[in-house]
Specification:
The protein is mainly α and 137 residues long. It contains five helices and no strands. The longest helix has 48 residues. The radius of gyration is 19 Å and the shape is elongated.
Length: 137
């Protein structure tokens, strides 16, 4: 009887561990997809809106945790430091991997540095990289 009870408990624990891992992977995939949608949203704003890059990021990423108040500190900090702070908060809140964080931080390095075509090429490049991360998730 004891062996039966222990085996039932063991199966239950293994099931919960598997379910927990599945939820983490699903959450990672959903967060990466949300970030990818924001990058896609940036492209027409960069091309046609005439907004400065701070406003483009605020409009495109405003619904993600960490980016809600992106435009408020633009007088005191440079763009990349605000990007780093917002992206780090987004990654920590969404429990993404360190490799995901590296890709997101590198995306922000070229924002506001190059001309319109360079920023669009940066968006295209990171759309591909993030799409590969989503497939791997």
């Amino acid at each position: 009887m004891v062996k039966l009870m222990l085996s039932v408990v063991f199966v239950g624990v293994c099931t919960m561990v598997g379910y927990s891992a599945s939820l983490r992977l699903r959450n990672r995939k959903l967060c990466l997809q949300a970030f990818l949608e924001c990058v896609h949203r940036m492209k027409p704003l960069i091309s046609f809106s005439g907004y400065d890059i701070d406003r483009v990021i605020g409009v495109s990423f405003g619904n993600l945790k960490g980016f809600e108040d992106f435009q408020t500190g633009k007088d005191s900090d440079n763009l990349y430091s605000r990007w780093t702070r917002a992206a780090s908060e987004f990654v920590s809140e969404s429990k993404l991997k360190l490799s995901d964080k590296d890709v997101i931080l590198r995306f922000g390095e070229n924002l506001g540095v190059t001309d319109t075509e360079g920023q669009l090429m940066n968006c295209d490049l990171y759309c591909e990289l993030i799409s590969e991360l989503v497939v791997d998730a």
